[in-house]
Amino acid sequence: MNTSVPSSGRPQLARHVRLAFDRTRERHVLLQPESVVVLNATGADVLGLCDGQRTVAEIVEELRGRYNRVVENEVRHFLDRLVAKRCVEISDG
Amino acid sequence: MDRPFGLLAELTYRCPLSCAYCSNPLNLADYSDELTTAEWQRVLAEARQLGVLQCHLSGGEPLLRRDLVEIVKSAGELGLYTNLVTSAIGLSRRRAEELRAAGLDHVQISVQAGEPVVSDRIAGMRSFERKIEAAQVVKELGWPLTVNVVLHRQNIDTIADILRLAEQLAADRVELANTQYYGWALRNRDTLLPSEAQLRRAEVVVRAARKRLAGRMDLIYVLPDYYSRYPKPCMGGWGKRQLTVAPNGDTLPCPAAHAIPLPRASVREDSLERIWTSSPLFQRFRGTDWMPDPCRSCDRREIDFGGCRCQAFQLTGDAARTDPVCHLSPDHAIVAETVRAANEGTGPRVGVLVPRPHRG
User: Fold this and answer.
1) How far is C-alpha A44 from the chain's CA centre?
2) Global confidence as pTM
3) Is B53 close to A36, i.e. CB distance below 8 A?
4) Which residues pair with B313 in a beta bridge?
5) A19 touches chain B (CB under 8 A)
6) In this structure, how many other beta carbons lie within 10 angstroms of the beta carbon of residue B152?
7) C-alpha distances in Å from residue B50, one per residue of B7, B54, B234, B349
8) Contact check, Cβ <8 Å, B81/A31
């Protein structure tokens, strides 16, 4: 599927997806009906900000307060992949 | 050692339907001494401890367990994502509301065909209308809905109806999986295996539907492995990502592993962790060291793990052989012969399906 998340889009987790912290693996995970996505710390941070209110640009801005180097394209690419997996939905800005 | 992600909790093998493609074992009566509520709660807690994140509540028909709501509640409290795999018989509005309140995350409803006559015939009872009503309740209560249809020679030609139905029900996912030949399905295999022409027609419909439904509905289509060049990566590897607990507490690396001649492992006698980490049943086919050739020297050994151990056992009598589905298997003729027979003649195949009994 070809998707591209615009900077003005407001991402949020799809309804059937749950973001959780797995104490056994000490990683954040995305839980869905038939699969589990194990996230790295950055991925978990991005998704923690995907509340359907913030735009991608705002999320990137917020991440810049936490990390030295945040590349908007990388964040968008990460979200693109999750949109393709139907874990994330984007409402238009 | 890897930690498991998923637990298939087969709560009971009792079922109101009698589908001939059922993958439950033939000796259903041996599983009638079911785990109690407290035993399941212990299993769930141990599973979570071991790393399990997803719990598929299945069977038989899990709704036949009177304590299902309690089990769901316990699973949810442990942080497990819960998925109910059901025929929907017994999913009244009241029961659905209770399950919703208990925190059930997802519901997967099976139908047997895209229209009532064929669906009821395959299910062995009038059930289609009740399934549709239950699916509507599931959507109304705000659950994500998966519609699941096991495909075979007698319903694969109704695939367009099935997709239309899933669309009408506003399903979030539709899973069209060709029959896997275990248990009752293996006994009925020669009557269930579709022809190549049927599969080609189905594929055209699936491809068009994927385009039409993109972004609205996930469409999962699983080919019958008998028609594949390579075997399926059964369970994502033996004792690697998944485990199954049968109604009587038997713990299995693959839901079809009942028959494999290794000492049985049961949560009634041991902890889930010890079973996972050190039982002979889970250890025997872990990794790649057990593999014979052609698997041992094959580039795909970490992709398909030599296929399904249970299928190898069922078809050759030796669980350590390459899955005969693989075209490189020395036993591939067994599968090729079955496929050849399924493609003889063009008319409908005459065959008597043996329905699975409701209970043992």
Assistant:
1) 7
2) 0.94
3) yes
4) none
5) no
6) 25
7) 10, 12, 21, 47
8) yes
